[in-house]
Amino acid sequence: MTAKERDEAKKQTEMLAALRKQHSDQVKQAQALLKEQQNVRKTLRGAMKAGPRTVPQLAEATGLPSAEVLWQVTAMKKYGLVIEEGLNEDYEYYLYALSEEVKR
Amino acid sequence: MSDNRLDVDTLVVGGGIAGMQASLDLADQGYQVALVERDPSIGGKMIGLSKVFPTLDCCSCITTPKMAAVAHHDNIPLLTYSEVESVASNKNGFVAQVLRKPRYVQEEDCTGCRSCELVCPIDLPDDENEFGRTSHRVIYVPFTTAVPQTALIDLDHCIYCGKCIKACPPDAIDFTQQPEHLEIEAKTIVLATGYEVTPYDAKKEYGAGKLGNVIDALMMERLLAPTGPYGRVLRPSDGKQPDSIAYVQCAGSRDLTLGVSYCSRVCCMYAIKQAMLLSGALPMADITIYYMDIRTFGKGYEQFYQNAKTMGIEFVKGKVARITEDENQNPVVRVELIDENSRVAERTHDLVVLSVGMLPGWNPQATFGVPVAEAGFIQIPDCNVSPTVTTQPGIYATGTAAGPMDIVDTIMTAGAAAAEAAAYMQNHKEQEPAVPEAAPAMRDKRSTVHA
Ligand SMILES: Cc1cc2nc3c(=O)[nH]c(=O)nc-3n(C[C@H](O)[C@H](O)[C@H](O)COP(=O)(O)OP(=O)(O)OC[C@H]3O[C@@H](n4cnc5c(N)ncnc54)[C@H](O)[C@@H]3O)c2cc1C
Ligand code: SF4
């Protein structure tokens, strides 16, 4: 890193800190949302460790409402954290598994 | 105070299919058109649809080229994420004050690579394009086929962690961006502000939006689209692949309890279309359409309906009085079966789709001085003879801003509005006193942006 780059990085860190301070209430709320999301994702990843699961199975394993599980799994699938692995044996529900990226 | 100015021939407000088509029709004749769209992308409702009746063409495949044509047209300055705040008349026509909302991303620099989106740590419900069924990040490109492919930040949910700044190759993120004001001078205006659908929680008899497996038809369009949230049709309460799907027609049209007396024209046709697409996507599923009467008004539409019947889609003449749900969140439809001596039956399905109606979107009265008619759509005084001419000289209306219509009719009125605007400009040019000038062989209609 050159001296100039270091200087720019410092300025950026200061700018972000100032913005966080300026919008502190809203940032606190967003941080709380992030934390909650991280916890939910951790629980879901745990429940998928043993292998592919359907939404109702994940809901039962985690205690989360099934609509919430579907939303989380859909969001995780969109960003490559979860993959869909075909239908279960009753042809009713799709199975979701952790992607290689997450398993690594 | 305006920072910038733009001189054009026509200001088009709304970048759905109506506004895009009117813009292209004018721009192709050499007129300069400023297209102002409120959302971060053009495309309107049409870009979110799966396939179109009655041809079953892929909607994205026919809308995206139009969006690209608009964005790349030399005669169309495109202003997305912008709103017309006020309009005044002057001797040349109109002067509009336009607000350009900040994206916190430099439009000129962003390439839509989505590197920012991949590193941003927070997922938010994508209410804007996917009815909350999936997520986007705090910084996001609106959708895969959005035009322009430019990211924006929902600052209300940002934690200013700076990950996006580090990830952005062209350094396009700018947290200090402010709203900008632009003054647009135009000789004519085309209003193409479109429609909204009946809020899906409008009817308490149909569960007031609280039943997990009662959705509206626009949501179903997304479930059927290959780019949709699940990539397939699943019911939202638990991700089950539905075996039994029912449509409730006139859920928001011809319903005086909602203050809507008119027929929305497209709901019968889109329900038949969706039913056909569902029987392709879910060959084992039973599909029922509860209807009062089926209205197939356009060319080839009646045949489309007959084809659906031969495909095994069940059409049940009946008025749905109520929808409740059982202990497994299966919707239970209580319906008066008209062809069975008006016997009342309760039928359980996996998923129910409300064929919601078309409501007026935006009221232009305050900004443009253009009044709306009784139902709330733009008033067209002589709709049989001049279906796009409003009460204000030089201001035209196209598409569903003027009343419920399908895409075919929307495109026709877009052409008509463009022709009316061109004729008006031609007539007014002829009336202008002949000022001797070094007349160029072809009038240069390129817009001029004054700093
Ligand atoms: C479920 C469903 C399925 C359908 N399927 C079909 C089909 O298969 N075939 C068919 O022919 N038709 C179909 N239709 C009808 C079709 O969607 C419409 O005919 C068409 O999209 C209307 O286009 P529009 O440009 O008039 O309106 P819109 O698509 O609503 O576009 C209006 C645009 O204006 C913008 N806007 C609004 N207010 C402002 C403002 N104040 N300033 C700036 N911009 C503004 C909006 O953001 C939007 O981009 C369907 C409708 C529904 C509800
Ligand atoms: S600064 Fe905000 S938008 Fe950028 S990555 Fe962090 S949370 Fe996302």
Question: What does this protein structure show overall?
Answer:
The complex is a heterodimer of chains A (104) and B (451). Chain A has 104 residues and is mainly alpha-helical. The two termini of chain A are 30 Å apart. The longest helix of chain A has 26 residues, at 24-49. Chain A has one domain: Winged helix-like DNA-binding domain superfamily/Winged helix DNA-binding domain (Arc Repressor Mutant, subunit A), CATH 1.10.10. In chain A, strand 1 (82-87) and strand 2 (94-98) form a beta hairpin. Chain A contains five helices and two strands, in the order ααααββα. Chain A has a two-stranded antiparallel ribbon. In chain A, helix 3 (55-62) crosses helix 4 (66-78). Chain B is an alpha/beta fold. Chain B folds into two domains: 5-101 and 179-194 and 361-431, FAD/NAD(P)-binding domain (3-Layer(bba) Sandwich), CATH 3.50.50; 198-358, FAD/NAD(P)-binding domain. Chain B is built from ten helices and 25 strands. In chain B, strands 16-22-17-18-19-20-21 form a seven-stranded mixed β-sheet. In chain B, strands 7-8-13-1-25 form a five-stranded mixed β-sheet. A five-stranded parallel β-sheet of chain B has the order 6-3-2-14-24, with helices on one face. In chain B, a hairpin with a 4-residue loop joins strand 4 (51-52) and strand 5 (57-58). Bound molecules: flavin-adenine dinucleotide and iron/sulfur cluster.
